[in-house]
Amino acid sequence: MSEKYGIPTLAATASSEQVYDQGYKYLFGTFTPNQTLTEPLADIVTGQNKAIKKVAILARNDLFPLAIAQEMEKSAKSRGLDVVTFERYAIGALDHGAAITQMRAANPDWVFATGYINDLILIRKQMNDLGLRPQIVTMIAGPAYKEFVDASGPLAENVSSAAWWHPAVRYNGKDIFGSTEDFNKLWASKYKGEADYSEASAAAVGAILQLAIEKADSIDPAKVRDALASLDTETFFGRIKFGPTGQVHSLEPPVFQIAGGKPVVIYPASIKQTDFKFIAK
Amino acid sequence: MIYLQILANGLVLGGLYACIAVGFSLVWGVLNVINILHGTFIVLGSYIAFFAYQYFGIHPFLSVGIASALLYVVGYATQISLVNRVIAAPVLITLTLTFGLDLVLNNMMLVAFTADYRKINLVNPLQSIEIGPIFLPGDRVAAMALAVILTLLLYWLLRDTRIGRAIVAVRMDREAAALMGVNVKRVNAVTFGIGALMAGAAGALLSIIYPISPLNSSLFLGKAFVVCVLGGLGSVPGALIGGLVLGIVESFGSFWFGPEHAVTLSFTVLLVLLFVRPSGIFGRKGYE
């Protein structure tokens, strides 16, 4: 519809490159490609302990969860890790017993599971119930949300994840929010608590659209589109510069881990809050 | 040895599926009403258990009684005030009515509780039972055992009590039952109430296993459909066996063909059974 009518669309929560490689001119997105999450994760894990050799991947058979699992497979293999299982589960699955039993048989050091909050709460619980206790558990995209931590309780501890934004990042921007700290304060006063990465991204697209309109000095859709395409600016969400496909390439997504019931940043070094920890056996 | 673990997973999962389906099967078999509300009733039972634990510290297994009682009242009132008005209409009418009621109740829950996923984290969670290399999740086993007990109680109620015989009589021949002095209207309401009661009990049991959200209702309803058709409509043992068959098929199907094909496989089994034995494994006209 955007292409047909020549109206720019800003996608707040789309990271898979398959969304952007269709030749669209009017589509822009604020999430970097999936490998920008899996590459630092793989670096952190392999940098911690050379004894980590075997990775088991469990992915929801859905666009983003499957795409990021496939990127993880590439990131792991490129570092010499052995991907011992790669299972996909159906959307709406009410049981992961068989997949977890198979993973347990392969005795992985690292389990990487993808899906949404409900999937990952269930997977984390069934892993524990069925005796699958690897040294590292990484889950995307549940742990970024408070619901995951509340629902998983102690099982959330030391689960690692990555997202495109975190309240702990610190950016000063030219957008309406000014800085990450100011955005956090405004969010807390309006909605209580902290924004997650998707909420922050949704706010960012509004701010980015304003900057593009100001740059174009017009609300003509084609001029705003061109302004977006050439935009290179700082925002509370980070530096925004869209690549040739319309997907942002200028952000460095943080990697975090649940510690004491809260997500704490372990990468990048500039905003790191703690060191990476293994799951207690 | 891995096959024993897969079998154990399937049996425990099947027990939960039976628990989900038994009330749905009863209402469909006796009243000829496809109760689309059933999944939402299960979720409501889960919320009752969740809030009872969060605010009063009541263990979800004890909440089974509370959720059952409250859902029985809701089910009885829904039947007598709404469903009963169209009970003699073709099945599509009652299906549409319960579909509409489901939309209303589900959206009310979304407004009241939001779509956020919640889960009960017991202070003293049940540990897995380890028998050699086999792991049996304690909460699933306990929930399955309670579900089987409830199902057997329902079986006893239908076979050996006055109201149970009245329900069976209405199922077999509504007019003849009325001529024999059975208050069909009341029996219908009691049956719908028992269906909701079983859904409430299932919801309370599932609250320690699955994340709770109104969005789950369609998942539970889908499983209930398959189990009912597998086991045979209206048959309590059929729901139990149908649940176990579905659980085992899904478990081994996931293992052999990958988890993404488990649902396809279970529906294939369902289609084959519909060709070979359309009434289901235990399907028959009455309960005798």
Summarize the structure.
With 281 residues, chain A is of the alpha/beta class. Chain A has 2 domains: 2-32 and 168-240, Response regulator (Rossmann fold), CATH 3.40.50.2300; 35-162, 3-Layer(aba) Sandwich (Rossmann fold), CATH 3.40.50.
Can you describe what's shown?
The complex is a heterodimer of chains A (281) and B (288). Chain A is built from ten helices and eleven strands. Chain A is of the alpha/beta class. Chain A has two domains: 104 residues, 3-Layer(aba) Sandwich (Rossmann fold); 128 residues, Rossmann fold (3-Layer(aba) Sandwich). In chain A, the strands form four sheets. Chain A has a four-stranded parallel sheet, sandwiched between helices. A three-stranded antiparallel sheet of chain A has the order 7-10-11. In chain A, helix 6 runs parallel beside helix 7 and helix 9 crosses helix 10. The termini of chain A are far apart. The mean pLDDT of chain A is 92. Chain B is mainly alpha-helical and 288 residues long. Chain B has one domain: ABC transporter involved in vitamin B12 uptake, BtuC (Orthogonal Bundle). Chain B contains eleven helices and two strands. A two-stranded antiparallel sheet of chain B has the order 1-2. In chain B, helix 1 crosses helix 9, helix 5 crosses helix 6 and helix 5 packs antiparallel against helix 8. The chains are: A alpha/beta (281), B mainly alpha (288). At the A-B interface, strand 4, helix 5, helix 6 and helix 7 of A face helix 1, helix 5, helix 9 and helix 10 of B.
